[in-house]
Design brief:
- The protein has 4 domains: about 150 residues, Beta Polymerase, domain 2, CATH 3.30.460; about 90 residues, Hydrophobic Seed Protein; about 180 residues, Hypothetical protein af1432, CATH 1.10.3210; about 50 residues, no CATH class.
- Helix content is about 55%, strand content about 10%.
- The strands form 4 sheets. Strands 3-4-5-2-1-8-9 form a 7-stranded mixed beta sheet.
- It is an alpha+beta fold and about 475 residues long.
- Strand 12 and strand 13 form a beta hairpin.
């Protein structure tokens, strides 16, 4: 028995209670059912998770009847696509009727037609490594399109012509890049060729579906592979045009760091620092850190200027980049929380470079922490990852400087509760002291006290009251 067969057998034994019971139920009702797609692929790779996908000859209403009483919970949010979901113990199960789906020429959503055979269902799937199945209850391995061979060679091919597959569902082009990033596989040349020729067809897919694939790609183990494929095929021009725009041209008179390659390196270095955010081993991927690393320099193409001495500048690319990032993430329908977090990091990613060799005052350190807010730890990661210089001496100097800044932040935090910086008087105390009611003046006073707190550090209520009264008197005179 081969290592692959032994691995698959071991994984099948682990899920035997689920697949055998489901197989018996559907067979007794005269219906076919098979474990299919990603779970079969992952079982062969020895990385099967708790999400199990099945395909069946049964229509959704029959499937729902067959799993009731067996599953602990049943849901039908995917009924329009032929899918019934349920939970049994630790297993999340989705059972989908044999189907054939495709896009109309101008549609943003696929149309779904039911199929009538397992082989036909497998033939409509995106890649051969996802077009394998295990028929139940007999556990017979089905591989009509050579997925096992492609899995062994770590290559992504389509069951039929890639042009037909991508016509049926253009999102499969993004899935090719996503699986390259997740599995570390190579995409077959004919698939790359079809992606390049048909890249513009991705425009008919909804922004939400594109976003979901992009998130999975960025959070995968090998995101560089997927991103490079998106850029190489031209898909990135349609879904994330800011990325290929970073490949700024060089000429004989000017030279500068390749911003595109720099960005991919920053992303990889940020991934290496994700352990700072999690006690898990390995740490969970952090979308905000990764997307901020990907977008941190997108303002450079728009702000690039050549100087007379042959040097190039990108003044204010942080501010411009934050605006560009916000627009792109909104277009991709990211959540407001993710948009705010990522754009804050892009906006602040250059702030550390004013630190020099530690000349910042305590006030400047407090403001750095205040401005970063709940993104401080992610800002630490992004700033450290942004150093890609090959000059070892310069890299060591930057690392030591940031070590020093973090030490100062920790020391001030211990002394001053830096993570909860607020004025030494609250709104009620301000109104009582100044003899005013709620309104704009209270906000101005509060802002004054906050700036004073950042400049001087903690003060007693007496000191803060004296400073506020002096400010109020000068302001009113």
């Amino acid at each position: 028995m081969s290592d692959v067969q032994e691995t698959a057998l071991r994984e099948m034994m682990r899920i035997a209670p689920v697949i055998d019971e489901l197989g018996a139920r559907f067979a007794a009702a005269g219906e076919e059912i098979a474990l299919v797609g990603g779970p079969v692929r992952d079982a062969l790779l020895g990385r099967l998770q708790n999400d199990l996908d099945f395909t069946t000859s049964a229509r959704p209403e029959v499937t729902e009847r067959l799993v009731k009483g067996w599953a602990e919970a049943v849901w039908d949010v995917g009924r329009a696509f032929g899918t019934i979901g349920c939970r049994r113990g630790p297993w999340q199960v989705e059972i989908t009727t044999y189907r054939s789906e495709k896009y109309d020429a101008d549609s943003r959503k696929p149309t779904v037609d039911y199929g009538d055979s397992l082989e036909g269902d497998l033939g409509r799937r995106d890649f051969t490594v996802n077009a394998m199945a295990i028929s139940l209850p007999g556990r017979d391995f089905q591989d009509p399109y050579g997925g096992l061979v492609d899995l062994a060679h770590q290559v992504l091919r389509t069951p039929g012509r890639p042009e037909d597959s991508f016509t049926d569902d253009p999102l499969r082009m993004m899935r090719a890049a996503r699986f390259a990033a997740q599995l570390g596989f190579t995409v077959a040349p004919e698939v790359v060729e079809a992606m390049t020729a048909m890249a513009g067809r991705i425009e008919i897919v909804s922004a939400e579906r594109v976003r979901d694939e992009l998130v999975k790609l960025v959070c995968a183990p090998y995101p560089r592979r997927g991103l490079e494929l998106l850029v190489h095929t031209g898909l990135a021009d349609h879904v994330l045009p800011e990325l290929p725009a970073l490949a700024l041209e060089r000429d004989e008179h000017h030279s500068h760091k390749d911003v595109y390659e720099h960005t991919l390196t920053v992303l990889e270095q940020a991934i290496d620092l994700e352990h700072r955010l999690s006690s898990e081993d390995p740490p969970a991927p952090d979308l905000v850190v990764r997307f901020a690393a990907l977008m941190h320099d997108v303002g450079k193409p728009r702000t690039r200027k050549f100087l007379g001495d042959g040097t190039v500048t990108f003044h204010h690319h942080d501010v411009v980049g934050a605006k560009i990032t916000r627009r792109r993430m909104r277009a991709l329908r990211f959540s407001n929380d993710d948009i705010d977090a990522v754009t804050k990091l892009v906006d602040l990613h250059l702030r550390f470079h004013g630190y020099g060799t530690g000349e910042w005052t305590d006030s400047a350190v407090r403001r750095y922490v205040r401005d970063a807010g709940d993104q401080l730890e992610r800002l630490h990661i992004l700033t450290r990852a942004d150093s890609t210089t090959r000059n070892r001496r310069k890299a060591d100097r930057l690392r030591r400087a940031y070590d020093h800044l973090e030490e100062r932040i920790a020391r001030l935090a211990e002394q001053e509760e830096l993570d909860a910086v607020r004025p030494d008087l609250d709104g009620n105390q301000i109104m009582e002291l100044l003899g005013i009611g709620p309104g704009r003046e209270v906000g101005h006073a509060y802002k004054f006290l906050m700036e004073l707190r950042l400049d001087r550090g903690p003060m007693s209520q007496e000191e803060a009251s004296e400073a506020l009264l002096s400010w109020w008197s000068n302001r009113s005179s």
